[in-house]
Design a protein that fits this description.
The complex is a heterodimer.
Chain A (H helix, E strand, L loop, with lengths): L1 E6 L2 E5 L7 H12 L5 E6 L2 H14 L2 E8 L2 E7 L4
Parallel strand pairs in A: 2-3
Antiparallel strand pairs in A: 1-2, 3-5, 4-5
Chain B lengths: L1 H28 L4 H19 L4 H11 L3 H22 L12 H17 L3 H9 L3 H17 L12 H8 L13 H8 L9 H4 L5 H40 L7 H13 L2 H28 L4 H7 L22 H13 L8 H7 L8 H19 L10 H20 L4 H10 L3 H33 L5
Helix pairs in contact in B: 1-2, 1-17, 2-6, 2-13, 2-17, 3-4, 3-20, 4-11, 4-13, 4-19, 5-18, 5-20, 6-7, 6-17, 7-15, 7-18, 8-9, 11-12, 15-17, 19-20
Classes of the chains: A alpha+beta, B mainly alpha.
Chain lengths: ~80, ~475
């Protein structure tokens, strides 16, 4: 797992290699620590975590602004819109 | 990319072709082998549905507690109502292959142990099989851990015998089992024969005293045993985890956000939130019910009650249990057949493991090539692989030391829990609840408690890891 600050308001979380529930748990914790309006670039390769992360964002009010898939690797950009 | 897609498709069709060939060739060798083919194709459908819907029992309550997502809890309730309804028809027409299990505190404790393990591994027993079909090496390690721990746990005595209460020991000996089964030696045997077998067996229809076959099946087992508790459980999930987000969205959209109609719309929105999961639940439920019907039909056609009789008829006497049977549940089941694969291997390596109830008295240790439920598990992995390949989600994913540790610890707990509860999340929970068996919800309550404990642990663990990463910058 790698969580880093790329620039002001932009964070990157790489949870490739992890299976459930790690990707969704790390994503939740990263979003909880970020401020409203900041962006998280999330990279994961566990397909079933995607379903949970999307539902979690929808429920909390955070916005998945971009979804890319490349050979089983998912790169999502999530904007923290909820307080 | 196109080349990868093409290659994936070829592999998918090769798997389908292999299973088709296996079915046709085995049938042409002897018509009895269609029994194995039936298990195979239902397993294949289970695998496809599980992968399509990312249908993992483990995530049902884990994701609720961990990230507040009710998707899987909803999917499982839908599947149970559907499976229960089809099964009620099968039961009412006298074609059920199901036998209710003893209920008591043991089911709750078993569920708890299994539930903790399930969170640690990241997948339930069937979930690990379907994820293995996606190329996930950690999932393969999980089902190997479950199977080995199970195969070992059913036959160990020694110092564990000292942990057996004397009352269990005496009661186990008093059951009068054959001398070949050393029921006084081995923790699990004494737990089973000395405790679990003394517990009552009850279905909801019996509890309500319903007599008519159709009334008992549909009113007692489906309505009271599944629909009402599942609806109540989902209502709790709605109020605790879904309602707040739903009302917030309605408020943002300027729609009414108060009143009974709004709450009902919210409840339905939760059920319909994940179409993939709901569709998978629907097909799984129907397929699981049909499976029971088809297996009963096969048994009637061949005049047998267990595949062991067919093996005997074909001249394969070795590997049968004392009762002349092999594990042949007649419905969707996991863990026992995988334990048999490893039990059979240990036996061939010189371990005399047939003196226990699990292998020796009830399930036997058949050659893996002739293990009916084993065909179902192999095909489940294959079905999931086909689905993953066709949707380009198949990917060989190696494990890491951290995940391997969780897989081995969690898999071991799942193996122990599944034996204590006489089944895993499918056999002891999903199937039993769907058949109106009281013990099903008890195992489920334990699994929910286990999921909560497991999530507590992982919350602590991930928080620690995040703190270490964040030491490099201010947030």
């Amino acid at each position: 797992m790698k969580f880093e600050k790329k620039s002001d308001g932009l964070y990157a979380l790489d949870v490739c290699g992890y299976v459930c529930p790690h990707p969704q748990l790390y994503t939740k914790k990263a979003l909880e620590k970020m401020k409203e309006g900041e962006l998280l670039e999330l990279v994961f390769d566990n397909a079933s975590s995607g379903e949970s992360i999307a539902a979690m964002c929808d429920s909390k009010g955070n916005e998945v602004v971009e979804k890319n898939t490349d050979s089983g690797k998912y790169t999502w950009k999530i904007k923290k819109t909820a307080a | 990319m196109e080349g990868v897609e093409k290659r994936n498709q070829i592999w998918a069709y090769l798997i389908i072709g292999f299973f088709t060939l296996l079915t046709v060739v085995s049938y042409s060798v002897n018509e009895y082998y269609i029994y194995l083919g039936a298990y195979l194709w239902f397993g294949f459908v289970y695998g496809m549905c599980l992968q399509y819907g990312r249908f993992c029992f483990s995530s049902a309550f884990r994701d609720l507690f961990a990230v507040g997502v009710p998707r899987m809890a909803v999917g499982i309730m839908i599947a149970m109502v559907l499976f229960g309804s089809v099964s009620a028809f099968v039961t009412a027409t006298g074609n059920s292959t199901y036998h209710a299990a003893p209920y008591g505190w043991h089911a709750v404790i078993a569920g708890l142990v299994f539930g903790v393990g399930m969170v640690l591994t990241g997948g339930c027993a069937s979930g690990s099989l379907y994820k293995a079909g996606e190329g996930n090496v950690t999932a393969m390690l999980v089902f190997v851990s479950i199977s080995i721990s199970l195969a070992v746990f059913v036959d160990v005595g020694g110092w564990l015998n000292a942990l057996v209460p004397n009352a269990w020991h005496e009661s186990a000996l008093a059951k009068g089992l054959p001398a070949e089964i050393k029921v006084g030696d081995g923790w699990l045997d004494q737990y089973l024969a000395g405790h679990v077998w003394n517990q009552p067996i009850l279905t909801y229809s019996e509890w309500l005293g319903l007599k008519g076959a159709w009334t008992a099946a549909f009113l007692g087992n489906v309505l009271v045993g599944i629909v009402l508790p599942a609806s109540l459980l989902l209502a709790v999930v709605y109020f605790l985890w879904y309602r707040k987000g739903y009302l917030r969205k309605r408020t943002e959209e300027g729609r009414p956000h108060q009143g009974f109609a709004t709450e009902l719309a919210g409840y339905w929105s939760m059920i319909a939130a994940s179409k993939r999961t709901a569709i998978a639940g629907l097909i799984l439920g129907i397929a699981a019910g049909l499976h029971m019907y088809v297996m009963k039909g096969m048994q009637l056609k061949f005049g047998v009650q267990n595949f062991g009789s067919i093996l005997k008829e074909l001249g394969f006497a070795s590997g049968l249990s004392y009762k002349g049977t092999v594990f042949d549940p007649g419905y969707w089941y996991v863990t026992t057949q995988e334990a048999q694969w490893f039990g059979w291997l240990f036996n061939k390596l010189g371990w005399d493991n047939t003196g226990n109830i699990f292998f020796g008295y009830e399930n036997g240790l058949p050659n893996p090539l002739l293990n009916p439920a084993g065909w179902m598990s192999i095909a489940l992995i294959g079905g999931a692989a086909v689905m993953a390949l066709l949707s380009n989600e198949f990917k060989w994913k190696n494990t890491t030391p951290e995940l391997a540790v969780w897989a081995i610890i969690g898999g071991t707990l799942m193996g122990i829990g599944s034996r204590l509860g006489l089944g895993c999340n499918v056999g002891a929970f999903f199937v039993r609840v769907s058949q109106g068996d009281v013990s099903g919800w008890l195992f489920g309550i334990g699994m929910i408690g286990g999921a909560w404990l497991g999530v507590k642990f992982f919350n602590w663990w991930t928080e620690r890891r995040m703190a270490r990463e964040m030491a490099a910058f201010q947030l």
